[in-house]
Amino acid sequence: MASYARLSASELYLLENWDDSSAEGTASQCKRLLRKYVDVGCAGRWPYHEAARSGEYPKPTEIQIRIILQPTRNTRQREVARELLSGQGGPHLVWLRTHYGQGINLLEVVPFEEICSATGKDDSDVLVLNDRDLYNYDHGWSDLLTSIPEVLDSYTGPKDPVRIRQGIFDAKEEVAPEMEFSGEDWQEDLRERVHHAYVTGALWVQDEESSRSGEMLLLWIDEYGRIVREHRVEAEQMDMYSGMWTIYADNEIEWWHQADVGEAYEHGKWPDELDSGSIIAANAQSVEDSS
Q1: Rama region for 89: left / alpha / beta (φ>0; ψ in -120 to 50; rest)
Q2: In which element (H, E) is residue 221 found?
Q3: Region 168-184: what's the mean pLDDT?
Q4: Phi, psi at 258, each rounded to 5°
Q5: Residue 73, CB-side half-sphere exposure with 13 Å CA sphere
Q6: CA separation (Å) from 39 to 34, 127, 180?
C-alpha cells in the first residue's frame, strides 16, 4: 500500500471536512469537497499547506485511507501532486490528454525529450497524464481540479496569499501613473498588463482540437482555476517554453501577448473582488453551452 505518512494540503482538507454520516457516495463527496478546496483560493488553502509542510496534523486512520484517500487518487496522481508542490527547478506543467478519439496523438509526434522538457521535468515523464479511464473528461480540462488541484500551485509551489496580493498590488501600482493620464482607448491595455500577477499555475492540454490541428493548448490559470490566458502552440515550438521559464516573466513571452484572454479577465478586468463561485461548475457549463 502507498505510504500516507505525509499528506498534502488537499488531503488534509478532505479529511477535515469529510462527513461520515452523509448518504452521498464516496466519489461524489470527494469531488464536491475538492471543488470547495479550489474555490477557497490561496488564502483558504494556505493553512493546510503550512500544516502539511510542518507535519503537525492527526495521522489518517486505516479506515480513512481506505475509504477517503485511496479512492480520491492513485499513487501516480499523488506523485504528480507532490512534484507540482515541490517548487523545485521552476514552474512545472502537467501534460493533460483529454481526447482519446481519432486524429493526431501528439504524444506520438513530439519527441520524448521535448515532452519532458515542456513539462519542466527534463528527465522524467511523471507529469504526463495519459489515461483514457481517468482523463477522458466530459467537461474539459477543469475536471482535473477534482483529482489533482495542485495544478493551481504549479508555479513554484504553494503561494503565500500575502505575497500574491502584494504582487498584484505592485503590478497595479506600476501602471497607475499611466492610467491616470491615458484615454479610454488605452485603459484596457494598461489593465491587462497586470494580469500576469494573478497567475499561479499553468498546464498543457491535449484536447480534441489538438487531434485536428496538431497544436497543444497552453493555459495560464489563477488561484481559483480561472483561465487568465490561453494559447495554441505548434508541437515543434513546445520545447522552447521550458527555456523561457527561468529567464523571462510571462508578460515578457511572445505567446502571452498572442494568447486569448480568459473570460474572468476580459476587457482588462481585475477579478479581485469577484466571488469565485464554483469554477469547475462554471467551466463545465461553458462546455455544455458550446456543444
Answers
A1: left
A2: strand 215-222
A3: 84
A4: -85, -15
A5: 25
A6: 9, 24, 33
